[in-house]
Amino acid sequence: PRVKDYRLVVRGPDSADPTPIHLARGRRARPAAAALTDEELRAVFDSIDTSGDGEICVAELQVAIRTVDPKADDKTVERMLSFADADGDDTVSFAEFKEIIRASLTPKSR
């Protein structure tokens, strides 16, 4: 599976019902939904960063991905982390997380 195939179900800060959120697309899974706010992105990030240290490590990402795809293999999760890890420290900071989500929302020029 590719990064964009994964969705996390999270409860937004003001949301009463959980809505699937595409990790790579950075928007709600509903059609015509707006891009996620910083507050919503933080809620998604914090739901993955279970240690609360401000970084998503491979173990935390594995738990999150296996919640939606129990068959996801270690290599796939490691590739996802590497893809988002801009500074090469083997973790994903909130800034890197936001960047990868926002980049996926930017229309590509033809």
Keywords for this entry:
110 residues; alpha+beta; two-stranded antiparallel ribbon; two-stranded antiparallel sheet; 4 strands; disordered N terminus
Q: Mind explaining what this structure looks like?
A:
- This protein has 4 helices and 4 strands, in the order E-E-H-E-H-H-E-H.
- It has helices spanning 38-48, 58-68, 74-84, 94-105; strands at 7-10, 19-22, 55-56, 92-93.
- The strands form 2 sheets. A two-stranded antiparallel sheet has the order 1-2. Strands 3-4 form a two-stranded antiparallel sheet.
Précis, in short:
With 110 residues, this protein is α+β, with helices and mostly antiparallel strands. Helices cover 41% and strands 11% of the residues.
Mean model confidence by pLDDT: 75
Query: What percentage of residues falls in helices of 4 or more residues?
Result: 40-55%
Kindly state the number of beta strands.
Answer: 4
* Main sheet specs: 2 strands, antiparallel
Biggest sheet, spatial arrangement of strands: 1-2
Order of helices and strands: EEHEHHEH
Strand content range: 5-15%
Rg, Cα atoms, Å: 13 Å
Structural class by sheet pairing and helices: alpha+beta
End-to-end CA span:
26 Å
How many individual helices? 4
Dominant shape: globular
Which stretches are poorly predicted, pLDDT < 50 over at least 5 residues?
Answer: 1-6, 9-15, 24-34
